[in-house]
Each structure stands twice: as structure tokens, then as C-alpha cells.
Amino acid sequence: MNDVTNKDLCVLSLGAGVQSTTMALMAAQGEFDKMPDCAIFADTQSEPKAVYDHLNWLMSGNVLPFPVHVVGKGSLRDSMFDGYNPVPVYSANGSPGRRQCTKEFKLFPIADEQKRLLGIKGRAPKGTSVEVWIGISTDEASRMKPSTRGWQHNRWPLIEKRMSRSDCLLWMGRNGYPVPPRSACTFCPYHNDREWREMRDLDPVSWADAVEADERLRERGEFLHRSLKPLSEVDLTTVE
Known about the structure:
By secondary structure, this protein is an alpha/beta fold. The chain is 34% helix and 10% strand. It is built from eight helices and five strands; from the N terminus they run βαβαβααββαααα. The protein has helices at 18-28, 49-58, 76-80, 101-117, 157-160, 165-174, 193-202, 204-218, and strands at 8-13, 38-42, 68-71, 129-133, 152-155. It has a five-stranded parallel beta sheet. Helix 1 crosses helix 6 and helix 7 (193-202) crosses helix 8. The radius of gyration is 19 Å and the shape is globular. The N and C termini lie far apart (52 Å).
């Protein structure tokens, strides 16, 4: 895709999880009122391999009729150990840190890419308009928030279609698409025990990465699991 020369742009924010994938594929099938100019994936360099495999499939050239731009700020994992930690890990008293990772490693790079596509350097001039499609479904409608940038206007196509996450999975199945993996950094402290357990049992590479990150964090009194125990020793069994 060539850089957009005017000051209007429609962008799909692609996380490569269930909702954003469904939204992208629905757009590809013409189920919305227009086609986005492109999708943008913000790479933290810390997703499970399954997410990158799924992203490569979406970008393969015969799935989406619009390009996917991959942007990023670098390795979020490296940032945790290089003097500034934007990940809300738990302190020794059980309090989580401030969550800055989404803003700094996803939202900022995506906004910078939008300006690059428009040929804008510095502040966006008056009249700039970017419509950003965000994959929020009805079961997480509380996450809907207007953009803090005056030139950026958020839109939630799945909400407009009154689709829940379950509806997205049903739509994917009806149309013969594979179920996307969950998009989240391997060491995200917001994982619940089910997600940690599934990672341990089904994705040993990601589990080893999370355990190693947890060991390094504990050296300075921080933890990935809310129990404040070493991740490798947390009881992740269910009542059953």
C-alpha cells in the first residue's frame, strides 16, 4: 500500500486474537459498510509462536484484501529488565504495578504508523481524520473508550453487529476459519490460572519463557503470579 496522500484514513487495529481476527475477516467478506485501508499489528516481540503463525496466515496474501502493517517499539520483555518496566507485575506486598505496556508498546506505535501513512510529521494538522476499528465485543463493552487524540475516531464494528466473543467463534466456524490463539504476551500477569495452566500444558515453549521471566523478576522482589509464589510452583490444578 502506498502512503495515503490525503488526510482521511480507515485503519483496523489488529491484535490477531479472536475478536480482531473476526472483524478483519468480516471486513474482507464485505460485511461492513466499507473496507479499511489497512490493518496495523503492534508487535511487542513477546507473543506466543501461535500468534505469529496466525498473523503470518492473515498476511499470506490470499486471506485479507488489505495490507497488514507490523509496527513496534522493540522487545517488551527486554524492557522489563532494562531499567524501566511498563508491565504491571506484582510487588512483594501484592500490589500490581501501573499498566503502561499497552499504551507504550501498542497504542503509541499504532498512532505513529497512522501518521506515517498520512505523511504527517509532528502534530496532526487540523482536518486530519483517522477512523480506527477496534475489536471489542459485547461481553467486554466496558472497554470502549473514545480516543484521546482529536484526529483519531474509534469505531467498534463488532458492537454495531451486537456480537459477543462466542458469536465471533460461531462466525469463524460457519465460514471455515481456524480458531485464533489468544493474543497476550507470554509473561502477562493478567493471565488467570486457567490460562497459565493451558500455557504450561499446551505451549511448553511459552511456559518456559514465562517461568524464566518470573525467576528474573523475583530476584528484585517482583512476581508474575498474584499468589507471590514462583510461577513454576503455583498450584494450577482445578477443583475437578
